[in-house]
Amino acid sequence: MTGNAIETDRRMLEALVCPCTQATLRYDAEAQELISEGTKLAYPIRNGIPIMLDSEARVID
């Protein structure tokens, strides 16, 4: 854990799915993001809370 980041419960993250495709998300602990391979979006995790909004997601290659 770095800085003042709150450690996210890994079991909770494993239960989340992509809001667009309902597919499983990949957790990137270093970037603190949940990756949707199908939509090529990375949803941020801020202060231990996944932000599952398309408007907050980052487009990935």
Describe the global form: globular
User: Largest sheet, if any?
Assistant: 5 strands, antiparallel
Helicity level: under 10%
Strand content: 25-35%
Helix and strand composition category: mainly beta
Query: pLDDT average, as an integer?
Result: 87
Unreliably modeled segments:
1-6
Cα gyration radius (Å) = 11 Å
SSE pattern:
HEEEEE
Quick one: how many beta strands?
A: 5
What's the helix count? Answer: 1
Distance between the termini: 26 Å
What features would you describe in this structure?
- Helix content is 10%, strand content 28%.
- 15% of the residues are buried.
- The protein is built from one helix and five strands; from the N terminus they run H-E-E-E-E-E.
- The longest helix is centred in the N-terminal third of the chain and has 6 residues, at 10-15.
- With 61 residues, the chain is mainly beta.
Give the secondary structure arrangement, pairings included.
Layout: H1 10-15, E1 26-28, E2 33-36, E3 41-46, E4 49-50, E5 58-59
Antiparallel strand pairs: 1-2, 2-3, 3-4, 3-5
Q: Which characteristics define this entry?
A:
five-stranded antiparallel sheet, globular, 5 strands, 1 helix, 61 residues, mainly beta, 10% helix, single chain
Brief write-up:
Helices cover 10% and strands 28% of the residues. The longest helix has 6 residues.
